[in-house]
Amino acid sequence: MRVLLNGEPYETAARFISELIAEQVPTVRVAAVVNDRVVPAAEQAVTLLAEGDRVELLTFAGGG
Amino acid sequence: MNQEDDALVLGDHAYTSRLLLGTGKFASADVMARAVVASGAQIVTVALRRFDRDRPDDALLTPLLAMEGVTLMPNTSGARNAEEAIQAARIARELCGSRLVKVEIHPNPRHLMPDPIETYQAARILAADGWLVMPYIPPDPVLAKRLEEVGCASVMPLGAAIGSGQGLASAELLKIIVREACIPVIVDAGLRAPSQAAAALEMGCDAVLVNTAVADAGDPPAMAAAFAQAVKAGRSARQAGLMPVGQEAQASSPLTTFLQGGGRV
């Protein structure tokens, strides 16, 4: 299916948000926001993705 | 007073260090980590951004999490209004579990001045929701008091514009904020030199937050150590009680006349 990942169109075989995160091979913890809703880590493995979902994956960066 | 007993209290947390450090603009995660250690900071700020597997600085968090006694304070930089700042706080909590949040809403990238109205709205909602809210604000004594009334853990008025290095341009307003506040006042932004950090503590501010002053220094870890010393000196001076400013000279040596009438040598 096609979702919008961090603002860009993205084709994925993932069914759950956890699988989409795994596809990115993150070396750090990432937070997921699906259609403006923060998905808690404990829910990522049971939260289904749908066609056209807007997914934001975020992490920490340096900042003051 | 013993430095151990003289804690910076933020809500139900107490810290011995009165220097908070930002983690932006460092040349590498390694330099940043060494600066954090040298600063003795127990609170360091981090920002949120989109995850990008091709960006190597994603490793920033790894050294920070390995440091004992360092609490992360996520900021809401990038938020243009209260709603976005609250969302940023919730995302950050997912990442680090911290209840500390630096509410930072500056919609104009040219001057980066905090939006007092959106900041107040976000702070009110987050404080009611149990966060230890640390709002970055213009040096406005009335706003500072209003933020205290809605339950903020501190107020963080700017010394000067972010990254400008103009020091304590807001000194006279900061003094009013300090006089009126019942919560910690932390000068955030604008500092360039350790002497300015010392001056902030001398005037009664409870702590300072620096980032660019350390990150853009020739030797960031050494500058971090210098700020740590300055903050301690400023705090000690405040507690020792500074002498009053006089209008005229007051001799500190006896003005006796023993040299008069002694004749030429």
Q: What's this entry about, in short?
A:
The complex is a heterodimer of chains A (64) and B (265). Chain A is mostly beta strands.
What does this protein structure show overall?
The complex is a heterodimer of chains A (64) and B (265). In chain A, strands 2-1-5-3-4 form a 5-stranded mixed beta sheet, with no helix packed on it. The longest helix of chain A has 7 residues, at 17-23. Chain A is mostly beta strands. The model of chain A has no long low-confidence stretch (mean pLDDT 93). Chain A has one helix at residues 17-23, and strands at 2-5, 8-11, 31-34, 37-39, 54-62. In chain A, β1 and β2 (8-11) form a beta hairpin. Chain B is α/β, with parallel strands linked by helices. Chain B is built from 9 helices and 10 strands. Chain B is globular. Chain B starts with 7 loop residues before the first strand and ends in a 25-residue tail after the last helix. The chains are: A mainly beta (64), B alpha/beta (265). Chains A and B meet through β3 and β5 of A and β4 and α3 of B. β5 of chain A pairs antiparallel with β4 (43-50) of chain B, so a sheet runs across the interface.
Topology readout:
The complex is a heterodimer of chains A (64) and B (265).
Chain A: E1 2-5, E2 8-11, H1 17-23, E3 31-34, E4 37-39, E5 54-62
Parallel strand pairs in A: 1-5
Antiparallel strand pairs in A: 1-2, 3-4, 3-5
Chain B: E1 8-10, E2 13-15, E3 19-22, H1 29-39, E4 43-50, H2 61-66, E5 71-74, H3 82-96, E6 100-103, H4 116-128, E7 132-137, H5 141-149, E8 156-157, H6 171-180, E9 186-188, H7 194-202, E10 207-210, H8 212-215, H9 220-240
Parallel strand pairs in B: 3-4, 3-10, 4-5, 6-7, 7-8, 9-10
Antiparallel strand pairs in B: 1-2
